[in-house]
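Entry 12.
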Amino acid sequence: MSKQIPASGITANDASKKGDLGQIYIKESKMYRYFLCKDLTVAAGNVVEYSSTTGAVTKDRAGGTSIGRTVAGVAVGAVTAGNYGWFQTDGVVDCTVVANGVVAAGNLLTAHETSDGSVVVATTSTMKNVFAVALGADTATTSAAGTVSAALIRV
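Predicted 3D structure (tokens):
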């Protein structure tokens, strides 16, 4: 059952735990989970993967602290490494795309292998890690990162 979110709100950056890890909150066709952010600070739109089996997540895919290469959600606000926050797990959300990402509407998305927190179009070899479908083209350019609106496949 979903519980009330803490007073700090859905974009929380809690220095101390304000709820149960893995707690679910549902509002307006979107689902969120409360996690401990490890290793690297995240920004809104960053994709995170599980870094433990006890409710911790990380965007540190390139550094290797992700376990199982399984997306846990997308940050809805900035969360400092070592703090707690809410991550979206279902619904429409904006995700970070690396420069020259070239995402089009309908593309299946997966976490980028070397650009921590970013998404990339899935390929045959990464299809098993798909977590979202792009709803439009990304805003990235050849020299700057951007975003893409995506529909999460419940993670």
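Annotation: The chain is about 0% helix and 35% strand. The chain has a mean pLDDT of 90.
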